[in-house]
Design brief:
- Helix 5 (147-183) packs antiparallel against helix 6 (188-220) and helix 9 (268-284) packs antiparallel against helix 12.
- 29% of the residues are buried.
- The strands form 4 sheets. A 5-stranded antiparallel sheet has the order 2-1-7-6-5, with helices on both faces. It has a 5-stranded mixed sheet with strand order 9-11-12-14-13. A two-stranded antiparallel sheet has the order 3-4.
- With 418 residues, it is an alpha+beta fold.
- Strand 13 and strand 14 (371-379) form a beta hairpin.
- The chain is elongated.
- The protein has helices at residues 2-34, 51-57, 76-80, 92-104, 147-183, 188-220, 232-242, 244-249, 268-284, 320-323, 335-341, 347-357, 382-390, and strands at residues 61-65, 71-74, 84-85, 88-89, 108-115, 124-134, 138-145, 228-231, 253-258, 263-266, 291-299, 306-312, 361-367, 371-379.
Length: 418
């Protein structure tokens, strides 16, 4: 009996100890789960309610720092700008702003130029940084990229300066010439000579104002609101007629050719102005007794067939350093020659905007002393594509992609022009 009682007592004690140990283990586990860890300090629940949702819809790059300057929350844009690296804010001026705001609770804002991530060309990102307290121990940093806004502002300033300069030149010339006419009132030959110069300057001023209006219109209007199927042959014929007098004066041969019955979709007036500007430039910058040609053809593209319009000349050509800038407003390869030909430096800028607004592109091939080829690529009208599928154009089988549907002298492929 004594042995059985001892065994029972030992079993009871073991059971009690097991229960105590299990209870302590449960309490320890529960307390350990509630204890903040290094990971839990930097997760979303640390943020005040609703802040995470607000940060996710902001356009600015957002970074939230805790009292140890560790990143609690950062948007993907902040990583893309290189603001956050290795869990830390990598921009020292912004970090100092955050510390100052944490200390006194004041909102701070500053504009900085940051090195562009992954670029060794010294380019800088212009940003605006704003720091504000978020609760009792967190700091919110909002960073907005101002690079594109600054670039647009610089373009606007240059545009205003260029417009002012271009307008002052003919206006000043007209003022001086009018004074010369008054002083030479008793000299008929001088009056006639000065009056001729006044007509030239007045024409230049008129062209400049008209091209400024055209450029403003193509930048602000949506050409596809009044879009229609435009026949390419009609655009080519109109461009040739527009420059026929200038070409005849210089004995320049106008040649047109290519695939017949092509159509593009867009604003007829803008497309005619763009092609006309290219042909006019080709005539103005070509020597006498040379050739200017316009060729049209259909080319396949991933998003649908495109229409290519190539304008080729045998003029002075364009250097490599000038090719990147010729579509800028008021940029002229040779300002002295442009003034002699009446150029304003806006024609190619208008071409670029028109083609871009129609979903196409403009490219240029040129070599100094060998001429230039400007190529417009525009989407083909859907109706024309359907007709082409039902009645295939035999001209597409031609090796050069050109036929002779035009009454003008046919144009060889641009590559074979000397």
């Amino acid at each position: 009996m004594d042995v059985n009682a001892a065994v029972a007592a030992a079993a009871a004690i073991a059971g009690v100890l097991t229960g105590v140990i299990a209870m302590l283990a449960f309490r320890w586990s529960e307390r350990d789960q509630k204890r903040p860890t290094r990971t839990s300090l930097h997760t979303d629940p640390v943020l005040p309610p609703g802040v995470d949702t607000v940060l996710s819809v902001l356009r600015s790059s957002a970074v939230v720092l805790d009292e140890a300057d560790a990143v609690v929350k950062a948007s993907s844009a902040a990583y893309a700008l290189g603001l956050v690296r290795g869990g830390k804010l990598s921009i020292e001026p912004m970090l100092q702003m955050a510390r100052d705001t944490r200390r006194d609770g004041e909102i701070r804002q500053v504009e900085l130029d940051l090195p562009r991530r992954g670029s060794g060309r010294g380019e800088a990102l212009a940003v605006s940084a704003r720091v504000a307290p978020l609760g009792s121990r967190l700091v919110l940093l909002l960073v907005e990229d101002l690079t594109e806004a600054r670039r647009i502002e610089a373009v606007r300033r240059d545009f205003v300066a260029n417009v002012s300069h271009e307008l002052k030149t003919p206006v000043g010339a007209l003022s001086l010439l009018s004074e010369a006419v008054m002083d030479a009132s008793d000299d008929p030959e001088a009056v006639e000579r000065f009056a001729g110069r006044m007509q030239i300057e007045a024409t230049r001023l008129t062209n400049l104002v008209q091209e400024l209006i055209d450029l403003s219109r193509v930048q602000n209007d949506d050409p596809l609101e009044d879009a229609e199927s435009v026949q390419v042959d009609e655009l080519v014929a109109e461009a040739v007629d527009r420059c026929r007098h200038q070409a005849g004066t210089k004995q320049i041969t106008m040649a047109a050719g290519g695939t017949a019955d092509l159509h593009v979709w867009g604003n007829r007036g803008q497309l005619a102005a763009a092609l006309g500007n290219l042909v006019e430039n080709a005539v103005n910058y070509s020597p006498a007794r040379t050739r200017v040609g316009i060729a049209a053809r259909r080319v396949s593209a991933p998003g649908g067939d495109m229409i290519e319009l190539a304008v080729t000349d045998q003029g002075i050509g364009i250097s490599d350093k000038d090719k990147e800038r010729i579509f800028e407003r008021f940029y002229r390869v040779d300002p002295a020659r442009s003034r002699a030909t009446g150029g304003t430096g806006l024609g190619l800028a208008i071409v670029k905007h028109v083609v871009a607004s129609h979903g196409g592109e403009v490219t240029v091939w040129s070599a100094e002393g060998q001429g230039s080829t400007f190529t417009l690529r525009l989407p083909e009208a859907a109706a024309a594509r359907d007709r082409a599928l039902q009645h295939p154009d035999p001209g597409l089988d031609d090796e050069a992609g050109l036929t002779e549907p035009s009454p003008y002298e046919p144009l060889p492929s641009p590559e074979v022009l000397p």
